[in-house]
Amino acid sequence: MKTRGLWLLSLLAVVACTPTVQVSRNQKTRLSAHRLVAVLPFEVTLSGNRGPVRDYPSMKDKLQEKGVQIQEAVHSFLHSQLKDSVRLLSSDETNRLLQEHRITPEKLFWTPKPEVARMLGVDGVVFGRAELRYSSKRISPAAATVAFLSTGFFVVGSLSTAETDFRIDIAEKENLEPVWSCRTLVRRQASINSVVRRRVGRKIPYVKKP
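^ that's the sequence the OP posted. Answer follows.
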């Protein structure tokens, strides 16, 4: 329990550069029509200096758990900051409906998001990806992976360096292209909650203006 709590408070993350936001044409008009929104589990991947880390069942399960934890962090922030005109489907209900439609985590990541939105009965879906990359000098990719999965931390300093490519998107049920995207590079250790709240969360167009 201590290990899982440590992860929840410590996805590798403090933004090292200004988040980049991309919007579609007629973004304000399209988003203003959204009344019910869902936050999906995030995709979490690992890669080392020799390319993607080969997964195995237990690692895959833990990465999927991380994706759900990011989902919950984003959902919690939006729930507290949402515009009055927008409602949020609960994470439990979102995940129940995905399971009911036999959308596994692997299938979710390549399923077109407009199809997922229609399946959930919502106007928009918030989703994203966290790609954790490291380069090791004195530690093997396997050892670095085990360290991440067991503690939530990468080894830093003389042993390895790490960064996270963190992205959030919004898609709607009628268009294949995301209506809004925000991407940032994270190069230092901090909580996912702090990244969501202080860096990218305020940029999400569903959030009330200060």
